[in-house]
Design brief:
homodimer; 152 residues; Arc Repressor Mutant, subunit A; 2 domains; 5 strands; 56% helix; DNA-binding
DNA sequence: CGACTTTACGGGTATCGTAAACATC
DNA sequence: GATGTTTACGATACCCGTAAAGTCG
């Protein structure tokens, strides 16, 4: 049995639609459909009665949903605990990036990354000239486009 | 993630050996090994430290095992509830079997089967002659060996 | 040496997304 | 007719068992 299928069941019951669940889970409606079918075949019981315009749990499905949720919650909790145990990322990291890339893309990512790792300090060097890469010692340097000097 | 893999983890932790777990689960040691590897890869954490003669949980594995067990328990409970809802098997079933087969094999099975379905009454006809099959109307008849009359 | 774990590999199955068909309001 | 569900299908990926290699006591 696959936990992904259980997840589809939970989302489908929550959103009242396979397509909506599929959108949430970033899968196609087709695979959501077969996921439910797989579950039902494995359990030998119909869990959802589905028409094109409505979707509702069968009595059996309603009962099973409770247990599926607790199972998924237990696994998520276990996983969270694992990550909590994992060595904290700490110290200082210096990175170099072009100004536009930093402004448009990286800022949001870095915000979230630092929220996950409060012990981490970032030293950002924003510069648009590649030559700056050699001036300052950085640990990660990001550039994009066609490199002018293939020696890199 | 696969629940079968979680099951391998539970059995391996319980028996202290991948091979022992594999025997219990009727799989080969090789698939037990890759099951654990799959789990560890999915979680990004080593769960079991294994040498050829010993197997023990890592601290992370010990913590995760608890949640894996509750997840499996929840799913088993949900499945049991589904079967409980299912229509009870009731009524009378008559079967015919050779005396030795009944004594050696079937008795234990039938005991358990009747314990699962208290509404069911069994009518056993034990006889070693195949000709008896036609005398009494039975719904299931068991014989083994080479049939003397290919008309059956 | 013996028992256990792991890796390599081939065959078979499963699963995915696309696309089309089908159903329902 | 528009949205949602299901099926068909081809390509890929996954998973199993066998077998061999590696490992530890």
């Amino acid at each position: 049995m696959r936990t992904d299928d259980l997840n589809v069941l939970v989302y489908a019951a929550e959103h009242g639609s396979l397509s909506a669940a599929a959108r949430e889970l970033a899968i196609t409606p087709a695979v959501a459909s077969v996921a439910i079918k797989r579950l039902e075949d494995a359990l030998g019981t119909r869990l959802l009665v589905r028409s094109t315009r409505s979707l509702r749990l069968t009595p059996a499905g309603a009962h099973y949903l409770v247990h599926a949720k607790t199972a998924l919650r237990a696994l998520a909790e276990g996983e969270k605990e694992l990550h909590r145990e994992r060595q904290e990322i700490a110290g200082e990291l210096s990175l170099s990036m072009p100004s536009d890339l930093g402004r448009n893309v990286l800022l949001g990512w870095l915000d979230r990354f630092m929220a996950l790792h409060p012990q981490l300090r970032l030293r950002l060097r924003v510069s648009d000239r590649v030559s700056d890469l050699f001036r300052q010692p950085v640990e990660i340097a990001l550039r994009y486009g066609v490199p002018e000097d293939s020696a890199w």
